[in-house]
Amino acid sequence: MLRIAIQKSGRLSDDSIKLFKECGIQFDSSSSGKLKSISANFPAEFLFLRDDDIPGYVEDGVADLGIVGENVYTETGREVNVVHKLGFSKCRLSLAIPRGTQWNGVQDLHGCGIATSYPRILGNYLKENGVEAEIHEISGSVEIAPSIGLADAVCDIVSSGSTLLSNGLKEVEVIYRSEAILIAAPGLSGEKAALLDKVMFRIKAVQAAQNNKYILLNCPADAVDKIMQYIPGMKAPTVLPLVTEGWVSLHSVINENDFWTNIEKIREAGAEGILVIPIEKMIR
Ligand code: ATP
Ligand code: MG
Fold it and tell me: What residue stretches are annotated with the Histidine biosynthesis HisG C-terminal domain (predicted)?
C-alpha cells in the first residue's frame, strides 16, 4: 500500500484532494479532525499533515509520496525525489520593501535586515548576488516586520500582491517561483514503485485532459487539409461526411492555448459551427 501525505488544510489541500479524486482514487477527505484515510478502491492510505512536515516524512519513508510547494521542498532541503510538477498552487517568493523607499537593485539590501520564513532560499539568493544582509527568521505575518521596526525588507510568498500592498510594501524582486510538486521517498520498493507508476499514468491523463479540448466543426471538404494544419489531433482528425454535399464534420483535439491562437485562421479556412468541449481523461 502507498502512503500519500497531503496538506491537512491550506492552499494545497483542495487541489491535492481533487487531483487524486480525478485519478479515480476514492478516499474520505471530509471530516476535519481526521489524520488518515484509506482508499476504498486503490491500495493507498492518505495522511493529512502540515505542509512543512511533508518533505521530512517522505525522506524518512513514513510516507511514500507527498504533495508540497516547491518552495517548501527547497527550503527544507530534504533528500526526496521530485517526481512531477502539478501545475497548481503557483506562487512566487519575492523581496519587498516599504513603498516610499527607492530601489536600485538587490545591492541596496547590503547591511539591511530582512524578515522571512525562507532563510535557506533567501540566504542562497543573497550569496549568489554577493549581498551581506541579516536574515530574521519568522514563521508568519512576515509582512508586518518593517512597520514594527524588525526589518528593513521582507522576503515572502506573493500571489496577487494585495497583502504586501495593504502593509505598505512594494514587491521589488522575484527570487523564486513555485508550484505544487509530487515528491517520493528515495528507494521505493518494487511494489510501491509499480503503484507510483499507476498513479503517474492517471495524473498525466488528467493533466492532458485539462490542457486539451475536443473540437468539432463543419467545413467544406476541400478545406480539411488547411484546417488540419491547426488541429492535427492525437494521430489525425476524424472526418465524417455531412448530408450537405461537399461538406464534412471534422473532429479533433486542440490545446487550450492553441485554440485561441488559431481560431481566426480556422474560421478563415472555412470552418463553421465550431464546438469546443472539455475532455475528462486523455491517454495518448
Ligand atoms: P500549514 O498549516 O500546512 O503549515 P501554511 O500556512 O504553511 O500551511 P499555506 O498558506 O496553506 O501554508 O500554503 C501552502 C503552500 O501553497 C505554500 O507553501 C506555497 O507553495 C503555496 N502558496 C502559498 N501562498 C499561495 C498563494 N497565495 N497562492 C497560491 N499558492 C500559494
Ligand atoms: Mg506550513
Answer: 209-281
